[in-house]
UniProtKB/TrEMBL annotation:
Gene Ontology molecular function terms on file: G-protein beta-subunit binding
One GO BP: G protein-coupled receptor signaling pathway
Principal location class: membrane
Similarity comment text for this entry: Belongs to the G protein gamma family.
Keywords: Cell membrane, Lipoprotein, Membrane, Methylation, Prenylation, Transducer
Pfam family, one: G-gamma
Protein name: Guanine nucleotide-binding protein subunit gamma
One GO location term (cellular component): heterotrimeric G-protein complex
UniProt subunit comment: G proteins are composed of 3 units; alpha, beta and gamma.
Classification via CDD domains: GGL (cd00068)
Protein's membrane topology: Lipid-anchor
Amino acid sequence: MSGSSSVATMKKVVQQLWLEAGLNRVKVSQAAADVKQFCLQNARHDPLLTGVSSSTNPFRPQKVCSFL
């Protein structure tokens, strides 16, 4: 039993390796250039770069009820 299950496992591993070998890969330099371009194009929408006004900030400290 053990021998046939290890053969089946190894066949699955080989099949997965064949699938991965057939993938089209992007060079790291090209991927980095794409990420940089995306960041530059979307910088004006990034709240970490542009900031968030206090009126629209959902994480601002809540006001305390002062009439008690």
